[in-house]
Amino acid sequence: MRILIVEDYAPLRRSTALGLREAGYAVDETGDGEEGCWYATSNPYDVIVLDLMLPKLDGLSILKKLRAGGSSAHVLVLTARDALEDRVQGLNLGADDYLVKPFAFDELLARVRALTRRAYQNKNPLITVGDLEVNTAAKEVKRGGVRIDLTAREYALLEFLAARAGQLVTRADLWEHCYDFQAEAQSNVIDVYIGYLRRKLEKPGQSKLIQTRRGQGYVLEAVG
Amino acid sequence: MIRSLRARLLLGTVGATLVFLLAVGLALYGLVSSSLHNEFDARLGSKARVLSIMVVDMAVEGEGYKLVYERSHFPEYERQQDAEYFQLWRSTGQVLTRAPSLGRADLQRIAGVVDAPAFRDVTLPDGRPGRAAGIGFIPRREDGEKIGADPRKEMVLVVAQAIEPVEARLNRFRWLLGGVFTAAMLAVAAALFGVVTSLLRPLEHLANRIARLDADDLSARFAAAYLPSELRPVARRIDDLLRRLEATFAREKAFTADVAHELRTPLSGLRTTLEVMLSKPREPAQYREALDDCLAIANRLQSLVDNLLSLAQLEGGRVELTKEPLQLDYLLREAWKPFADIAAKRQVEVVWTLPVPVFVESDPVKLRIVFSNLFDNAVSYVPDRGTVMIGIDGSGAECSVGVANTGSTLAGDQVAQVFDRFWRGDRSRAIGLHCGLGLSLCQRIVNLLGGAIVATSSVGGTFAVTVTLPRGVLPEPDENLTS
Fold first, then answer.
1. Which of A24, A152, A199, B99 is the most buried (most CB within 10 A)?
2. Does the distance separating the beta carbons of A11 and B296 come in below 8 Å?
3. What was the ipTM of the complex prediction?
4. Per-residue pLDDT for A108 more than 90?
């Protein structure tokens, strides 16, 4: 899941980005409206956390441009103004959710998760593939009822695959949605993490879950 | 003093009508009364003349004077009930004859001439109030020949009659007048009450509408066309007042919203930083970085609150100036100290132009706030490796302090607005979390100190604020001070 934060107040932006990264999201951040608009239109973000008052280009204008360009990214608007008309205007322009500053970080996280679930048309936080259970709300993974501990990055990859269970997911998709601009640009980083995931998910004697389509990508499905 | 307009209007108009009607009534009554009395007197006089003609000198027949008349033609002198009276005297005072109704009683003897009888109010023998008319005359002779004027032959005739019929008619007239008067008064009072009530209804209506006014909604206006023209100026004034109140309230609301906004953003940073830091154990370096951030945010919040408080005090007029002679260049250097580190960290070049020590009489605490705010702005908005210029011009009658920074993002026509509370550089953002209030505060303080503050700017060029201060009253130059 890749997230963009556009917020001009640096301490808030830094800590929000840190918190979201630690929750397993790939996060890009900027404090400038024009740059934020460029990021948002040129990358397939799952969720955009957007402040309304920004230098150069305000949040509502970014939202307008995004929607005019047909972007389907889910937008969570942050604002220090809680006047009703501000809220209505934001939602009318295509914001998906609204959070008034100051907010509890846990609430921001919960709303971002709700939006990412919505991004895959999945209201249910529990995704089941064969005997694999992925709880996207608790970020918990179980196989055959046994809990499996994953790192944030491993979990992000698995959740992305699980949300598209049975569908082909290319390396490029995985790269775009699970890695931000700060990530180490190694072409085999995806393969390395898929390897880690397999080692944890597919214990000896268990069936394979992550199927490789040579030259194309991966599919998460229970075979047999 | 009657407070009610309605009561005053009613009392005034009813009172005036009352006086007017009374005057008219009295005049009318007097007129009618005197004409009735005159008419009565005239009739009484005629009766006396008629009787006097019937007194004849029978001297030729040796019978002397005699009142000759057909008694049946004059029943009024015969009867006892509702009688009329006459009495005839010789010039010697001897009573010649009396009306039968008079019996042996006497009338008062009064005498006028034939054409102008003498009249007098009398009490009739039967006790009724009456009126008497008396004439002195010389009777005609039996043979019709006129006798020359001979006072010895003059006779006096007095007729008297009850005044009752006149009184009765006057009485009726009084009742009529009183009735008409009362009816008219009632009608006038009722009409006036109705008129006054309907006149005052718009006032009541206006009062009710004003009573329904609410501080939350001041959009109501009263100067509508239906108001009487006398009330319209009042309504217009109320509307003006409402307009001013509404503008003030709107400004205050906007200000409160702005304050909330300016406080919320740093608070939000503080909260999120702390929450994320607490979410799991971390390295000491990470904690240190977060604490540095939190400290910076707390400082920002404090300066915002300080500025807010100062501004509130200035606007509330609760501020006292303590003016004293001070060295301006020294004050500037002191105020710069907290910003020197930040400027150095961002490699900002600082250019000082302080030619000679400059003295003014002013309030050092207030000036310090002004300079701190100006420096804060300059350091916040100058780009890295930019230049901040600080200078004093003490050559003129007043002295001015200039603080400027390169890398301005403001156009020249936007620059006057930087003194508005929480003005935003462009619509999309606060020009600065601290500066939005800072320059507004500076302007108020400088104005209070009797000076002026001006800002100039060009996009990509220099943003400069110049504070001009009066020198004030300074003591004679002192060697110790200048050293």
1. B99
2. yes
3. 0.72
4. yes
Among chain A residues, the shortest Cα distance to B427 is held by: A58
- Asked if B66 and B55 touch (Cβ cutoff 8 Å), the reply is yes
Place of tokens 């005297």: B89
Can you tell me whether residue B19 is helix, strand or coil? helix
Rounded distance between C-alpha atoms, residue A162 and residue A151, angstroms: 16
Q: Show residues of chain B in contact with A10, CB under 8 Å.
A: 269
In this prediction, residues A144-167 reach a mean pLDDT of 88
Whether residues A105 and B266 touch (CB distance < 8 A) is answered with: no
Determine whether B344 is exposed, middle or buried from the number of CB atoms within 10 Å of its CB (0-12, 13-18, 19+). exposed
**Confidence grade of residue A111 (pLDDT, cut at 50, 70, 90):** very high
CA distance A172 to B420: 51
CA distance A41 to A53: 19
Q: Give me B197's structure tokens.
A: 């009530």
**Positions in chain B whose pLDDT score sits under 50:** 424-435, 481-483
Of A180, A152, A174, A190, residue with least CA distance to A4 = A180
Beta strand pairing status for B118-123 and B129-137? antiparallel
Output DSSP code: residue B306. H
Select the residue of A16, A80, A106 nearest B265 (Cβ to Cβ): A80
B226 three-class SS:
coil
- For chain A, domains (ranges, CATH) are 2-119 (3.40.50.2300), 126-220 (1.10.10.10)
Nearest to A101 among B264, B290, B425 (CB): B264
Q: Which two tokens stand for residue B129?
A: 């109030």
Residues of A in contact with B430 (CB under 8 A): 53
Instruction: Tell whether A32 is within 8 A of chain B (Cβ).
Output: no
The rounded distance, in Å, linking the Cα atoms of B266 and A216 is: 47
What secondary structure does DSSP assign to A104-164, as a single string?
A: -HHHHHHHHHHHHHHHTT---SEEEETTEEEETTTTEEEETTEEE---HHHHHHHHHHHHT
pLDDT digits (tens, 9 = 90+) for B4-43: 777 888 888 889 989 999 999 999 999 999 999 999 999 9
Between B268, B273, B428, which is nearest A101 by CB?
B268
What is the side-by-side strand order in the sheet with A210-213? Answer: A168-170, A217-220, A210-213
Q: What residues contact residue B130 under an 8 Å CB cut-off, 6+ apart?
A: B121, B122, B123, B124, B160, B161, B162, B163
